[in-house]
Amino acid sequence: MSAPLTAPPCPIYSVRDIRAIERRVVPGAQPPLMERAGVAAALEASRLLAARPGPVLIACGPGNNGGDGFVAARELRIAGYDVTVAFTGNPARLPEDAARAHASFLQAGGGVAELPAPPGNGWALVIDALFGIGLRRPPEGRYAEWIEAINALPAPKLAIDVPSGLDADTGGQPGVCLRATHTATFIALKPGLLTLDGPDCCGDISLHTLGVDAAAHVAPAGHRVGRELFSARLLPRPRNAHKGMYGDACVLGGAAGMTGAALLAARAALWLGAGRVYACLLDEGRPGVDPAHPELMLRPAGRLPEHPRALAAGPGLGISAEAGRLLQTVIDRNIPLLLDADALNIVSRWPERMKILKARRSATLLTPHPAEAGRLLGVTTAEIQADRIVAALELARAYHAHVVLKGCGSLIATPDGRWFINTTGHPGMASAGMGDVLSGLILSLLAQGWPAETALLAAVHLHGAAADRLAAAGAGPVGLTAGEVIPAARSLFNRWHQH
């Protein structure tokens, strides 16, 4: 069994690239890949059954994923487990390797039947070997009925490679999809496991490389975000330090009724270590000081600091004519610029928006949620969500920007065509102000001199990891607030510096 999901580095491959790797490995591979996959699935099943022993149901489909299931069934049966296999396909129409696996299972004394009713005490484990990555359309007929019936069972469910019905490239589920508690995926991670509906369908993921060095055959298209991608920047501060070394950060936003958004972003930038933080607010009734953090320098939006090291525009900015005018002035500045929330909505209304942002000399960072991304590209939210990787890459290319497309499994894309998926965070972060805090965290790292890509990767990962720590301690997921994440992020960031 190979290393678990948490082991860095962790490349991600599309289905097309996985198929290319398989074609290069399969000829002459001993043992064959299907044997390796089935044995790995059986070992993972044994691990789960150690905590809850009992009868096992394996649902096998008409392709190679079904072949993996037959191998797993044979191995579990030989090991002494009570195994029932559900299969109604035509053995003569199975792919060659799957046909051999089917015959091997029968020779070991196994048998197949329609999907049976659960035994008296229920199944201890149900294994999904129906379709894996091979299905490119919604499950139909008998197999759709099987998936629905399996989903209704109270037993733990182990999906082999990919839950049946899940699009392994996009994380979408065009029809019925198996809801697994565990997924044993092979060779490498697939993007659909980690974004959109994938995390809800996959449960806990274990990665089994099957002895295949994927990168030796195909360069990875993307990576899972982990600390290894930015650990080189986690350096101790010199004792002979001063605030000027850690930069001036500026937040532009806070129209009437929305000053809280700008203050959240500014506080996050302050708590993550920026030397000085300005909150430049549009609200004419703005406070003169932030009572919770008098260290922040509050100013009217028309009095932006002359030489900040980085600027974030958008938190609570509004879409007024004044907001648009101010945004045009900051876009012309030769400093790293983060655009979020209303700044993105204003930009989306500019006919020449792509040309304007491409002309910037310094780094541009965009942090849209799917609806904002749709406005920037002139498409619907559904079209963005249909393929989040393609959408993030198109945003990065069109605007020559570093982009995070927020959501479950946030997508990070770079102007040169690389992409990453972040897997920290939880549903409790779907609350007001979370995006403002993320903007502040990114801004702080930019002000401290971090490159745009590294700042984006680190801040997105930190944002979710801090929320995860709070949830583990009982502060969430339900009821978690954006403000609570700020001190948790500071604590975790300091911990990272020490390890």
Name some characteristics of this structure.
UDP-N-acetylmuramoyl-L-alanine:D-glutamate ligase; elongated; 16 helices; about 15% strand; Rossmann fold; 18 strands; alpha/beta
* CA radius of gyration: 26 Å
Please tell me what the overall shape is.
Answer: elongated
CATH class of the largest domain: Alpha Beta
- Strand residue content: 5-15%
Q: Number of helical runs?
A: 16
CATH topology of the largest domain: UDP-N-acetylmuramoyl-L-alanine:D-glutamate ligase
Strand element count = 18
Q: Which parts are unreliable, with pLDDT below 50 for 5 consecutive residues or more?
A: 1-8
* N-to-C CA distance: 28 Å
CATH architecture type of the largest domain = 3-Layer(aba) Sandwich
Helix and strand composition category: alpha/beta
* Major sheet size, sense and barrel closure: 11 strands, mixed
Order of the strands making up the biggest sheet: 1-9-18-17-16-15-14-13-10-11-12
In total, the number of domains comes to: 2
Bin the helical content: 25-40%
Question: Could you state the CATH homologous superfamily of the largest domain?
Answer: Ribokinase
In round numbers, the mean pLDDT is 95
